[in-house]
Amino acid sequence: MAADLGELLVPYMPTVRVPKTGDRVFKSECAFSFDSPESEGGLYVCMNTFLGFGREHVERHYRKTGQSVYMHLKRHVKEKATGAAGGAIPRRRNGKVFLDLELNRDFNGEDYEYEDEAKLVIFPDHFEIPLPNIEELPALVTIACDAVLNAPSAYKKQEPESWEEEIQVSRHARSLRQLDNGVRIPPSGWKCQKCEMRENLWLNLTDGSVLCGKWFFDGSGGNGHALEHYRETNYPLAVKLDTITPDGADVYSFEEEEAVLDPHISEHLSHFGIDMLQMQKRTENGHHTDNNSRPRVSEWEVIQESGMKLKAVFGSGYTGIKNLVNSSYVILDAYFWMYVGNLQRIFDYSPLDPTQDFATQMAKLGHGLLSGQYSKPPMKSELIEQVMKEEHKHQQRGISPRMFKSLVSRGHPEFSSNRQQDAHEFLLHLINLVERNSAGSENPSDVFRFLVEERVQCCQTRLVRYTQRVDYCIQLPTPIEAATNREELLAYEAKRKEAEENMQAPPEPVRARIPFTACLQAFTEPENVPDFWSSALQAKSAGVKTSRFASFPEYMVVQIKKFTFGVDWVPKKLDLAIDVPDFLDLSRLRATGLQAGEEELPDLMPPIVLPEDTRGMTLTIDEAAVMQLAEMGFPLEACRKAVYYTGNMGPEMAFNWIIAHMEEPDFAEPLNLPSMMDPGPPASDSTLGATPLGNSPPEESIAILTSMGFPRSHSINALKATNNNLERALDWIFTHPEEEESDALSDMLVAHSISVCFSVLGYELFAFISHMGASTMSGHYVCHIKKEGRWVIYNDHKVCLSERPPKDLGYIYFYHRLSSS
Questions:
Q1: Which of 78, 359, 650, 732 would give a disulfide with 223, using CB separation of 3.0 to 4.6 Å?
Q2: Each residue of 661-709: pLDDT tens digit?
């Protein structure tokens, strides 16, 4: 028999590999579905690529690659028998051969036992060889099988390789000198002290200076002022401001030139008024809570509808999801037509490694959630057995999208960690990934996209400027002063302070109740524009901004701004309830554009201010900044012009100049530096050194029209003719078609579905996500979705009909635009 097996495997020996260091063995989840060794058909692991496939997908991989040898893994899960005393009878576990596989269940694993089975399967004849079979198999095959069986999980393998575990304690941490200069860092509103950067900011732990970090090739970062400050002062340690959490922060040592650990980070931050000692404590179950947990107890009970006998539901669209924000349900409902509708085509044309393909994993997740394959009701025999035992513990299996989460979180500082995910940030991150992976094709994210018209008015001259920007979510403020139970809140606050002074137990908390109309009103109120530069005055002035909707999306996402920072930097959630309506009419928030009697601010940019010692001299170009831009692939001469025309103000400013001027015909032509003898342009051509903006419409507006299928040149003409108003530009295109394209435009109007709507048809609430916990860094999310006229609660793998949907306690709300009919 040994000879027979050896001869059988000889033709396939070149395709059998032994996993090497760095190889990931996917033996717990199919690349195209959520089948696992626990599934009825088990899992097939390719002995060459080490990818896992369910029974209905393994044939596809065989046809595409020609790989014939697979290891079939099957785990049999059984409930332990119960003795007369009610305790589980210990039974022997047979053949635990493939390790590092956890039970794919949320209930008590001690009540179950399992038996593992493995065998080699040779396609296309499905010849099976049971394992272990050391004596009869060739040595190479035996070694390969043993390595696959004992390989760690593809997801567990990433954890010990995390770079965070290699970070060493800084030698400056213990003896760090901190200046007693009275600096206190506010919880928000930071910007670099040497430029206007408001991101990638670092706090120097010696003198409290807030400065920007270095500039990155992707256009993010800063101008390197934090490093310059170290070179001037030799103050070695800095902490990145937006990374401070109860678990620590990102600390960098300029002297050691690497990320470091600071065991005294809490003490060093408190020197500047950032109190880390009062951050939330972690409880045994992994959730965070604070010392005064009473306000959150009722919130957890209400949102999860605890104490109610909720009826479990099964089938298509009722699949539980674990370890991922439940906003995936709402997203995939909107993306269904793009991914799940093209499931077979996406799977058939997927790359050789489908685990790293975004479209494949989106289609896989959509099918897993919406097919009902992983949400099946219990068998009749199981129900009878439960009734006999007076038990009702059957729960659907649900899905655990570890492969999807690993892909979409790759490279993201928050989502790639084990820290709590913010649902709003994850939603925008996912929309951004969909857009980036839809280049050259229809963009499913268009259903969330809308235009915001921003009206900025100079308070001194009363002149205005209208601009438009793209957005995907309304963020509504929560004005506590508009609470309908204001007197009750004031009385509670007085009792709380009295109890605190007398060291007594705090009173029963009172939740603020705020009308939804007050939140909308706060959204529409004018807000001050920081550092506003008036082109009419050619100087900084006071300015106010108001926002309105220039267009309306198919799906309107509304976020309630419940989270804030305390004066001690402790992030907290406001305990409030909003009477969110089932139907939403945003007619009064529709943009109007330039009104009669309004005058626009001149189309002038702020002048480039050069240091006094360089005036009247030829500007020296920062060649280092030029090379940074050139390494990104831009023409060298264009990079030189960008650095020159932005006055050597850093690579980021030059990068923005490149993006704004890429379409110009002389973009890559050589730069002609003016000499001191050049007369220059007449003074009348330029007002106080201001630079004309030109007549080119905003690229975002052009992109929106061209994404609808209109020619770029025609889109630019339409925007120019309508003062960059998108709604009027769309009307202008249909009333002024180019002669050679008139027929095409007419056909496009009928055939193309334009997701950006310029009329208000009303919205109906169909889903909301609620958060339980003290801050975004802790707690738990629950999703409610309205399906077939009834509300359904999605709480991890538990999916039930909702009895009392807590619509007033939501964090993110989803509305669908009503049809005109």
A1: 650
A2: 776 767 777 876 544 334 444 433 333 344 444 456 777 677 677 766 6
661 as an active site residue: the answer is no
Note whether residue 768 is domain-resident: no
114-165 pLDDT per residue, tens: 788 999 999 998 999 988 877 778 889 999 999 999 888 777 644 433 333 4
Number of H helices and E strands in the chain, helices first, is 21, 33
- Convert 439-475 into a string of H (helix), E (strand) and C (coil): CCCCCHHHHCCEEEEEEEEECCCCCEEEEEEEECCEE
Task: State the binding site for Zn(2+).
Answer: 192, 195, 212, 225
Answer yes or no: pTM beyond 0.70.
Answer: no
The domain tally of the chain equals 6
Q: What is the CATH classification number for the domain harbouring 175? A: 3.30.40.10
- If asked whether residues 443 and 466 sit together in one domain, one would say no
Please indicate whether residue 660 or residue 749 has the higher confidence score (pLDDT).
660
Task: Give the structural domain span for 22.
Answer: 5-80+95-150
Measuring CA to CA, which residue among 668, 673, 616, 665 is closest to residue 644? 673
Catalytic residue among 172, 412, 780, 784: 780
Supply the DSSP string of 501-555, one letter for each residue: HTT-PPPPP--EEEEHHHHHHHHHS-EE-TT-EETTTTEE--EEEEEEESSB-SE
Model pLDDT, residue 55:
93
Q: What angle do CA 395, 400, 403 make, to 5 degrees?
A: 165
Taking only the tens place, the pLDDT of each residue in 539-596 is 888 899 999 999 999 999 999 988 776 555 556 788 899 999 999 998 889 998 899 9
* Residue 793 and residue 784 in contact, taking contact as beta carbons nearer than 8 Å: yes
Q: Are residue 131 and residue 172 in the same domain, yes or no?
A: no
Instruction: Identify whether the C-beta of residue 97 lies closer than 8 Å to the C-beta of residue 61.
Output: no
Please work out, in degrees rounded to the nearest 5, the angle formed at the alpha carbon of residue 133 by the alpha carbons of 128 and 138: 90
User: What is the pLDDT, as a whole number, of residue 161?
Assistant: 39
Beta strands in 91-146 (DSSP E): 112-122, 127-130
- Whether 545 is covered by a domain: the verdict is yes
User: Could you give the percent of the chain with pLDDT greater than 70?
Assistant: 74
Nearest in space to 423 (alpha carbons), one of 803, 157, 163, 783:
783
